[in-house]
Amino acid sequence: MFLKHTFLIQIRKEDKMRSILKRDKKAQEGFTLPVMLALILGIIALVVVVIGVTKGWNYVFDKLGLLPDDLTSASQACATYAATDELKIGYCQYRELTIEGVKQWANCPYIYDAAVKVLGAGKVGFGKETCEVTPAEYCAQLRVSSSNFKESTKVHGKACSELGCKMKSGVSCKDPTGGVCESNLCELKTINEVQKCVFKSDVCSASQKEECTSVDKTDICEWKDVEA
Predict the structure, then answer these.
(1) What is the tens place of the pLDDT at every residue in 179-203?
(2) Side-chain half-sphere of 164: how many Cα atoms within 13 Å?
(3) What share of the chain is helix, strand, coil (3-state, %, to 5)?
(4) Which are the contacts of 2, defined by CB distance < 8 A and separation ≥ 6?
(5) pTM value?
(6) Sign of the torsion angle spanned by Cα atoms 130, 154, 78, 208
């Protein structure tokens, strides 16, 4: 009787051991090489996202030697334009692209500068040349030609509201005398319940640098453009 009881206990122990080994085997089978690779890639992707959010995506692309946004395709196109005489006209054409995370109008000289920031000089694949139409002049063209134009539209990283023929800083109209503005360039407006004389919106209005002057030819306007 004692032997029989001992035998049964031994059988139960062996069954339990086989059950444990079977579970371990299933766990090992479930943790295959593809699963491990997927986990590793997931961790890497998470790290990249965290770095991109905290330090900026340009930092990430710089370390990887890649170009972000539309810069890859735009740089390739600019390299073709620069190297082919028949396509040279495309080098200076402005295109609506997303560069450095900002939707804007840009041509190849600006694309070159943006690519150099990421890859470094000598690694872009084309050189920088001067174009005839400046960002400020292109803003002036958009004002006339585009029905969807907004002053917040960006060209070469700057809003059109900041470019072109603008009032010089520090210039202002004199306060009204008897409810009348002294200069015909100014108009009366109520600001914070106080009557003020302010320059009329068309005082500084020109599409080219040479034409940038006030309507009465006084020296209160200046041409503002993006530096080359």
Answers:
(1) 899 888 899 999 898 999 999 888 8
(2) 21
(3) 50, 15, 35
(4) none
(5) 0.62
(6) negative
